[in-house]
Design a protein that fits this description.
mainly alpha; three-stranded antiparallel sheet; 15 helices; 5 strands
């Protein structure tokens, strides 16, 4: 019935409202969207999502969902209000926002805090959409770019992404000391790099990857793998723990990496495509030019696979993957 509270009047009133919600005898009409987000939805996200994804979710909540519906009682959120809200956004923004609001309401229904989900009535998304750059580089371009980048600050990052399938955040967190050279049965030397962490904006390097399947070994074959190992040795000798660092020894921000890569692409005389598109370039060139089986590429990318065999039967060892990559590059005449 009463409680002592230390803080401002505004904070005290917020705490009072929280306690009223918590102890209300009619929870379905008293709980707010913010209450469900804070107590049920967000803790669930923290248990199952990677740090970069959590950053995106938190941004969506703060920019779009919380300002409009955070303080609204669950029963007061109506489909028409949601539709009017969506109409103010681009298609991409609206998709992110409605996915989150829908998730919050599904959680509320699950825990019997709401009678229904007002987002499940066929809402329309806006037509306008900001198109992402989908350009890629073919294998000949990637090989030439690797030669032109030799000795540059971006070389290690480039090799990890363009010849190893890494996402930029994964490549930025690779420890040079973890790079190991192994010899395939056909004599090809490959660099094997464990992917066990990623660089996250505002958090530095975290011991976590996007999904559990993203925890994997990537394989950089032939002269590109040997060069990656050389760069790793140079970094270790100079006392560096990452392939590319800021002035304090931590990972670069995504904006800084974007700027450096954009300048490098222009310097090399190639059309600029985002750093993340090197992973698309890798997948496309390795499947259609090197002709490595798609199932193998799924494993190397860190995807779980949707087939019964991928889920329950295939258990390829590291050396099986190394030999598959080495043989494919040998057949393509790209390694001795």
């Amino acid at each position: 019935m009463s409680a002592n509270f230390t803080g401002t009047l505004t904070e005290a009133r917020a705490e009072r409202d929280r306690l009223i919600e918590l102890h209300s005898t009619n929870q379905r009409t008293q709980h707010t969207v913010r209450y469900v987000f804070d107590t049920l939805y967000w803790p669930s996200c923290e248990k199952r999502l990677a740090a970069n994804t959590l950053n995106m979710y938190r941004s969506t909540w703060r920019k779009y969902v919380e300002p409009k519906f955070g303080g609204c009682k669950l029963g007061a959120v109506k489909p028409l209000a949601i539709q009017e809200w969506l109409d103010t956004m681009t298609k991409n923004q609206a998709q992110r926002a409605i996915n989150m609001l829908s998730g919050i309401f599904r959680t509320a229904v699950k825990f019997e805090l709401a009678e229904s989900d007002p987002t499940s009535v066929g809402l329309m998304l806006p037509d306008s959409v900001a198109e992402m750059d989908k350009g890629i580089y073919d294998l000949a371009e990637l090989i030439r770019m690797a030669e032109l980048l030799r000795g540059s600050r971006m070389e290690g990052m480039f090799l990890l992404c363009a010849f190893g399938s890494c996402r930029p955040g994964e490549a930025a967190a690779v420890d040079p000391a973890s790079v190991e050279l192994v010899k395939a049965d056909n004599g090809t030397v490959c660099a094997v790099v464990p992917i066990e962490r990623e660089a996250v904006r505002g958090q530095g390097v975290v011991e976590r990857v996007k999904t559990e399947c993203s925890r994997r070994n990537v394989i950089v074959p032939g002269r590109w793998g040997e060069r990656l190992a050389e760069i790793a040795e140079e970094r270790i000798e100079c006392g560096h723990s990452l392939f590319i660092e800021n002035m304090k020894g931590g990972p670069l921000t995504s904006a800084r990496m974007k700027a450096i890569w954009e300048n490098e692409a222009k310097r090399l005389g190639y059309e600029y495509h985002p750093l993340r598109n090197l992973r698309n370039s890798w997948r496309t060139s390795w499947e259609y030019e090197i002709r490595i089986p798609p199932a193998t590429l799924e494993i190397l990318m860190g995807h779980s696979g949707s087939s019964v065999s991928a889920k329950h039967y295939v258990r390829a060892s590291l050396m099986m993957l190394v030999n598959t990559v080495a043989d494919a590059f040998a057949d393509a005449g790209l390694v001795p």
